[in-house]
């Protein structure tokens, strides 16, 4: 078991190496002068005219052969120095660490209720195959799937912020930000809702929750279709199994058979897809965070990408590869618990 | 034939086909529906009625109103249909081509070549798609060609996997063995006997991907790295509307038209592709019951 987990983790350096090559290649497509800007601590840095720019390019070795530059660059990264992010005006590591709790808070609040909803809707649809609940669920999920995240998000803002003023964008109201920033408020985790509860501050908790509702609902709805569909197909398959028919023939109530015997086994394929979905959300809530001005990793990554802030892009890429490998590993480890027939080799 | 009969018998898919056909007609007749005006460099430059920042509501001159910078929303929705088809079909065509070449090469040579190509696929799959496409577009510059290239660069892996596994599966089937015994070359086998039979799973994936690629392309525009200012592109116009979500006090829906028309266009476009793709997948799913 441990051996297996270890071998899965060995994939990580391979993927990260390929990823670093890819990002480095993109970076090298810029001219040395453009790349020099990445080293600039302030705009004045580049104002010295042609001669000083040429000297700086020499100084940082930006004209060296690519493998020397790559070696130097990867050497820096391996010593834990991810570089300076112009976008965040912080070292990349610090920026990622400070934004991660916000994204985790948002993703967990959207993922787990979304998963439960998908399981519920998917098993309903399977049980009522080709009858009206099935059709209704299908229409509902396919509509959400077709909604561009930003259109649905903007509609949420239009109705619940502009018109009703229930769910404002951002992470906290101004007064709550002041409370959180004050010395008496201890930052345990960086996730506002958790910290507020740990500090016993109910009004900050409610304020944080109020800001989370709109992005959470948006994320749940636009991501619902995939998991629901897998659950439905899997449920159909399980309901056709002999043991289900046997249980029904013995006179067991329909509900018990459907919900306890069939649904439990139908969950297996959902576990795989849910792991992928979670990984995708951890790295892909870019648009949602941008629309709702929710400062998390996604918004940061989008800003960095638009500014070609390569240290930040690489940092985000490495973070995403790590999330992907770890979550795939977790799914593989959970699988035997759900299905004893699967023995991890 | 069976596919066509199923499509016709299913109201959801029929709706999808109908919407899709409507969009095809709009794209074809765009010059008639929204004639380009004089002094435009290309018909994709949306005409503007002045330079006022505040959007103006629908009127006789601009039936869908004008958005930020007085760009005509109706014109952009009509010509944006062509943009959407160009990007969606362009990205998918390039992705299918690249994926087929990579997948077929991996399956044909096997061994080390297969291993290297499939690890490359894994590496590309470990890249956050939207962010990677943003970076590439930001490097290549604005416009639909950079957007298409960027999305295809990070969108071909699924096809490579399908083609590879289909080739490995079909290669062992009797009719292929038969063709080989009377002397067909490997290339002929792959091109004429195997790939045509791997076509359907690719078709399903490609149909579903067309909608989502249009979504991604307009997301790029929305995030500020897509098409040029004023280009007839739904994502761009939705991005404009973002500044006008909040109306004046007492009139929260004052600028509804800036979001509603381009938003509805892209929603219906993606919906139609998804409905058609969903039905195709049902037909091909052996577990499907009718």
Automatic annotation (TrEMBL), chain A:
SUPFAM superfamilies assigned: MetI-like (SSF161098)
Presence of the UniProt keyword Membrane in the record: yes
Residues covered by the ABC transmembrane type-1 domain: 100-335
Location(s) in or outside the cell: Cell membrane
Keywords per UniProt: Cell membrane, Membrane, Transmembrane, Transmembrane helix, Transport
Main location: membrane
Topology of this chain in the membrane: Multi-pass membrane protein
Family matches, as InterPro entries: MetI-like, MetI-like_sf
Transmembrane segments: 99-121, 142-164, 208-225, 266-292, 312-335
Top-level taxon of the source organism: Bacteria
Family of this protein: Belongs to the binding-protein-dependent transport system permease family.
Designated name of the protein: ABC transporter permease
Species this protein is from: Microvirga puerhi
Lineage of the species this protein comes from: Bacteria, Pseudomonadati, Pseudomonadota, Alphaproteobacteria, Hyphomicrobiales
From TrEMBL, chain B:
Compartments it resides in: Cell membrane
Transmembrane segments: 12-34, 87-109, 116-138, 144-163, 198-223, 255-276
Membrane topology: Multi-pass membrane protein
Record flagged with keyword Protein transport: yes
Keywords: Cell membrane, Membrane, Peptide transport, Protein transport, Transmembrane, Transmembrane helix, Transport
Domain ABC transmembrane type-1 per the UniProt entry, residue ranges: 81-277
Pfam families, per the entry: BPD_transp_1 (PF00528), OppC_N (PF12911)
Record-given protein name: ABC transporter permease
């Amino acid at each position: 078991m441990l051996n297996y987990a270890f071998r899965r983790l060995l994939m990580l350096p391979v993927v990260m190496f390929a990823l670093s090559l890819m990002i480095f290649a993109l970076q090298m497509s810029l001219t040395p002068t453009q790349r020099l800007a990445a080293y600039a601590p302030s705009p004045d840095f580049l104002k010295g005219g042609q001669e000083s720019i040429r000297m700086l390019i020499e100084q940082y070795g930006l004209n060296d052969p690519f493998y020397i530059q790559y070696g130097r660059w990867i050497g820096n990264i391996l010593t834990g120095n991810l570089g300076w992010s112009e976008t965040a005006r912080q070292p990349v590591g610090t920026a990622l660490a400070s934004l991660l709790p916000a994204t985790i808070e948002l993703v967990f609040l959207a993922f787990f209720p979304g998963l439960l909803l998908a399981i519920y809707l998917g098993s309903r649809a399977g049980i009522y195959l080709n009858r009206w609940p099935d059709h209704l669920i299908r229409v509902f999920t396919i509509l959400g799937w077709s909604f561009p995240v930003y259109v649905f998000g903007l509609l949420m803002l239009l109705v619940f912020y502009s018109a009703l003023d229930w769910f404002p964008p951002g992470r906290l109201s101004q007064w709550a930000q002041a409370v959180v920033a004050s010395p008496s408020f201890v930052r345990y985790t960086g996730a506002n809702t958790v910290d507020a509860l740990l500090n016993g501050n109910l009004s900050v908790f409610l304020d944080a929750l109020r800001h989370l509702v709109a992005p959470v609902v948006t994320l749940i709805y636009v991501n619902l279709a995939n998991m629901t569909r897998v659950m439905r197909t899997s449920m159909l398959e399980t309901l056709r199994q002999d043991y289900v028919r046997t249980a029904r023939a013995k006179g067991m109530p329909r509900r018990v058979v459907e919900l306890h015997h069939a649904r439990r086994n139908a969950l297996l394929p959902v576990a795989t897809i849910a792991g992928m979905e979670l990984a995708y959300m951890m790295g892909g809530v870019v648009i949602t965070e941008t629309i709702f001005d929710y400062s998390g990793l996604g918004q940061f990554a989008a800003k960095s990408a638009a500014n070609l802030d390569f240290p930040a892009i690489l940092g985000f890429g490495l973070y995403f590869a790590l999330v992907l490998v770890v979550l795939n590993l977790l799914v593989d480890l959970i699988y035997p618990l759900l299905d004893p027939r699967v023995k991890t080799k | 034939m069976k596919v066509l009969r199923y499509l016709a018998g299913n109201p959801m898919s029929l709706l999808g086909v109908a919407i899709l056909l409507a969009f095809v007609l709009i794209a074809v007749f765009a010059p008639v529906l929204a004639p380009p005006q004089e002094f435009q460099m290309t018909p994709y430059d949306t005409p503007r009625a002045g330079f006022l920042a505040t959007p103006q509501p629908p009127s006789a001159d601009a039936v869908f109103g004008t958005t930020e910078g007085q760009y005509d929303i109706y014109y952009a929705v009509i010509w944006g249909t062509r943009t959407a088809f160009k990007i969606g079909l362009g990205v998918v065509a390039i992705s299918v081509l690249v994926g087929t070449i990579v997948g077929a090469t991996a399956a044909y040579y096997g061994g080390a070549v297969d291993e290297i190509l499939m690890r490359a696929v894994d590496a590309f799959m470990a890249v956050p798609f939207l962010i990677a496409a943003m970076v590439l577009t930001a490097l290549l510059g604005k416009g639909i060609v950079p957007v298409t290239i960027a999305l295809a660069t990070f969108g071909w892996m699924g096809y490579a996997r399908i083609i590879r596994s289909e080739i490995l599966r079909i290669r062992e089937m009797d009719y292929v063995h038969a063709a080989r015994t009377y002397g067909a070359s490997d290339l002929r086998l792959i091109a004429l006997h195997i790939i045509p039979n791997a076509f359907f799973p690719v078709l399903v994936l490609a149909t579903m991907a067309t909608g989502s690629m249009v979504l991604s392309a307009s997301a790029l525009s929305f995030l500020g790295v897509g098409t040029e200012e004023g280009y007839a592109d739904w994502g761009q116009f939705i991005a404009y509307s973002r500044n006008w979500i909040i109306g004046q006090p007492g009139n929260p829906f004052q600028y509804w038209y800036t979001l509603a028309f381009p938003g509805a266009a892209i929603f219906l476009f993606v919906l139609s592709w998804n409905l058609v793709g969903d039905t195709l997948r049902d037909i091909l799913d052996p577990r499907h019951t009718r």
